[in-house]
């Protein structure tokens, strides 16, 4: 009968030691039953709580240039010691860590000072971990939208300097101080921590430097600076290359013949309109600031000025090209500058070379003259109804110079009919010569326009290429300065 009380004792002992007691629950009650989360975890009012901070960037979500907002996804690792949460694992059955909701313990109330959307705190109130010895660790995730003054001068070859400023909103520098966390090798992590495994790279921005600095004023601030550099390929492919190609088209206007008339202007004005579309695209992207003009905007203004100049130039050249002798007179000086396909003055029509003696032989007539002689012959045939053979003789007058003319004159003196006929022929020849001179002058104006076009084409080509190169070189040389910080993302 002695077995029954022994068994009961054993059972009670089992229940008492293991089954009936939840170590975590009793630790929870032990730590938090008389805990006041409002008071600082210090024994005296002069003591300072030391907060160890480590910010881990998991994703640089975006930089909105228009709203000057940087959106980041971070984990904020905060560690401190709370003497009231001190326990020894031996007293609680080997429990090493206690996880409690964050609203049950004292928190340092760290906020992002330069946020822009009123979301000062974290995105998710994760549990707080309490370790043996009163060490408290909290690692909440946060998505922050912070202000970032965007410098657009070199857009899209720019780099930006954005910062994340953390501070304890409630406690001043005497009450709460910050220190950077220390990694496994004993090195201080005085920059934004980026775990290359967990980090999602941004397609538009590369992070060059991300140093952190602790500033002790009235409040203790932790300022992380993000030096981010834009990867310009997107803009090169989508804006710069099409823009340069379309702007280059404007030079083709110079190759259109003067006969195309308004088409010359149409080409350049179309290009001007296309450039306006690009300007509109860029204006949508960048902040509405008058502090500086982005590089791309400057380039577009430049090519628009070039296109406008070319439109004006085309109008002026058209004005020159399409002149006629009835509206304008060519001054001999202008004719000198016109490149002429004729080898010498002797081939020019009589009206253009007043110094030339009229009896000079016209042996080297330009080829076009042959057709006019044919026309002249036919006109003579119609007027005079003469046999062809005699007309050939008349036509010879032009070719054989003075003695033929003298012969004609003597013939005219001989008979009034012949004289009348010779007068008629002279009249027809004269008016044909006038027509030819006029046509020659018209084509001379065209040639002069062409020469202007040639000069202006080269001028515009040089202006366009030099201007483009200078503007884009400015972007090329706008590199992130070599700052004395370690690279943000380790190799
Ligand atoms: C925690 O408790 C142990 C033992 O009771 C003590 O030695 C230690 O100093 C305490 N730690 C703190 C931070 O109060
Ligand atoms: C970035 O901005 C911070 C604060 O605005 C400034 O202290 C720092 O010198 C800047 N860094 C660079 C490289 O301009």
Structure description:
By secondary structure, the chain is of the alpha+beta class. The chain has two domains: 24-231, Acetylcholine Binding Protein, Chain: A (Distorted Sandwich); 233-339 and 387-491, Neurotransmitter-gated ion-channel transmembrane domain (Methane Monooxygenase Hydroxylase, Chain G, domain 1, Up-down Bundle). 42% of the residues lie in helices and 18% in strands. The protein is built from ten helices and twelve strands. Strands 1, 2, 3, 5, 6, 7 and 9 form a seven-stranded mixed β-sheet that branches. α4 packs antiparallel against α5 (295-321). The protein is rod-shaped. Residues 9-16 and 341-371 have low confidence and may be disordered. The structure holds 2-acetamido-2-deoxy-beta-D-glucopyranose (2 copies). Residues 81, 83, 86, 88, 133-134 line the site of one 2-acetamido-2-deoxy-beta-D-glucopyranose (NAG). One 2-acetamido-2-deoxy-beta-D-glucopyranose (NAG) binds next to loops.
Secondary structure layout plus pairing:
Elements: H1 3-19, H2 23-32, E1 49-64, E2 69-81, E3 97-100, E4 110-112, E5 128-131, E6 135-138, E7 141-147, E8 159-168, E9 176-180, E10 205-209, E11 212-216, E12 220-230, H3 233-249, H4 263-285, H5 295-321, H6 332-337, H7 368-384, H8 388-400, H9 402-414, H10 416-476
Parallel strand pairs: 1-9
Antiparallel strand pairs: 1-2, 2-6, 2-7, 3-5, 4-8, 5-6, 8-12, 10-12, 11-12
Helix pairs in contact: 3-4, 4-5, 5-10, 7-8, 7-10, 8-9, 9-10
Bound molecules: 2-acetamido-2-deoxy-beta-D-glucopyranose (2 copies).
